[in-house]
Amino acid sequence: MNTPFDDDSKRRSGRIGTLRASFLTGLVIIAPVGLTIWLIWTVIGWIDGVVLPLVPHDLRPEQYIGINLRGVGVIIFLVFTTFIGFVGRGLIGRSLIRWGESIVDRMPVVRSVYSGIKQISETVFAQSERSFEKACLIQYPRKGIWAVGFISTTARGEVADRAETSGELMSIFVPTTPNPTSGFLLFFPKEDVIELDMSIEDAAKLVISAGLVYPNGNKTNGH
Asked: Which of 22, 144, 158, 181 has a 20 to 30 Å separation from 84 between CA atoms?
C-alpha cells in the first residue's frame, strides 16, 4: 500500500530525472558549439602570437586604432601564404624552389626533416589533385572480420606485376580509430573489395566515431 510519502518521493525522483535529462541534453547541445568556438579562438590567438612579432612595430594595426584586434595575424598569414603560392606557381618561383631544394639535398639531417614535412604537407593539403576514390569493405585482418577502407588507386608497376593474382589489384588504405590519418596500405584483389555507397566523408565519420555515427543509420537492410 502506497503512502503519501511514497508519492512525494516518486514525484521528487521524477523531477530530478527530468532535470538530469534536460541538463544532459543541454550539455550535448552546448559542448560542441563551445568547444568549436574555443578551439577556433585558441588557434587564431596562436597564429597571431607567431605572426605579429614578425611584423615591424610601426606597421601593426594597434598603433593606429589603439587596440589589439585578434585575428589580424591570421589575415596577414593568409595574404602572405596566398602571395607565396601565387609566386611559387610561376616559372621564376618554381626555379627558386628547385634551387632551394637542391641546397637542402646537400644537408643530411635537414634533408630528411624537410622531405618528411613536405610529404606530409602534400598529402594533407593537395586534396584537389589526389584523393580517395570510394569507401569500401574488406575482410581484414582475416576472413570473417570486416573493416572499412578507402580505395586509393589500381595498383601498377612492380607491385601489380609480382602479386600472385589473376585480376586487378586495388590499393586500399585502412585507417585507424579514432585517428584516420594513420593506418595501413594494403593490396586486395578487386573481387575481394566491396564498394560502399556512402561518401568518403561519411565513412571517415564512421571510423572517427568508432562506429557510433552511421550514415543512414535509421535505414534497415534492403530498404
From this structure: 181
According to DSSP, residue 192 is labeled G
pLDDT in tens, 60-97: 777 777 777 788 888 888 998 898 888 888 888 888 88
The one-letter code for the residue type at 147 is A
Contact yes or no for 203/183 (Cβ under 8 A): no
Predicted local distance difference test score (pLDDT) of residue 137: 95
For 43, 87, 94, 145, 177, the CA distances from 139, given in Å and listed in that order, are 40, 47, 44, 5, 17
C-alpha cell at 174: 585502412
C-alpha pair distances (Å), 68 with each of 48, 65, 212:
10, 8, 43
What would the grid cell of residue 136 be? Answer: 569500401
Cβ-contact 136, 193 below 8 angstroms: yes
Contact 73, 51 (CB under 8 A): yes
**Cis amide linkage into residue 175, ω under 30° from 0:** no
Residue spans of the domains in the chain: they are 134-208
Measure the CA–CA gap between 159 and 171, rounded to whole angstroms.
10
Angle at 112 between CA 156 and CA 123, to 5 degrees: 45
**Residue (of 139, 119, 123) closest to 131 by Cα position:** 123
- Residue 181 phi, psi dihedral angles, 5° rounding: -80, -15
